[in-house]
Fold this sequence. Notes:
This protein has eight helices and no strands. The protein is mainly α.
Amino acid sequence: MLTIPAMVGFGVLAPDLVPAVYGEKWRDAGVLAQTFACLGITYSISSFASPLLMALGRGATLRTLAIAQLIATVVVAALTAPFGIFVVAWASVLRGYCTLPFTLWMLKRASGITPWDALSAIARPLIASLIMGAAVWGLMELIRPLFAHVLISVFICIGAGMAIYAVLILTISDQARQLARTQLKRLRGLFAGKKK
């Protein structure tokens, strides 16, 4: 619920944000960051797969997965390096999605969690994030010319993106609503305790 919208939002704003913070000579880095942000889906799945495999005592499975990822990364980088950094970046993204089925298969073998279970867990955050990303992109195109410094536009878009995503995810996800209610109760308890 947090990784995917953060990656989508960063991906949308990176071409403006990176050169605004680091200088115009880093413009290409902003485009590269946007490219690598496309790995958000694979990252959100692998970020829970590794700790889960360790918790299940499947260190050997995790090692096999890590070695396979390393080999795939080295091979892709070696094959695409002659064509430039942007080809390497897009090939790395493609590698991430091509190795995702292997990760899901290893996860199913070790834990019984099916690929459908893993992918359906990220479906609602992904839908909300993509809608938010499109809205932020449109807003950025609209307001960029209105401000002398692009960082003002970026900060407005970040705030708008957070609000849009919050409304969307709370609308379409029961889990998000339950999590929000739990956190609100916790905050009320903290404030009530401080008043005493």
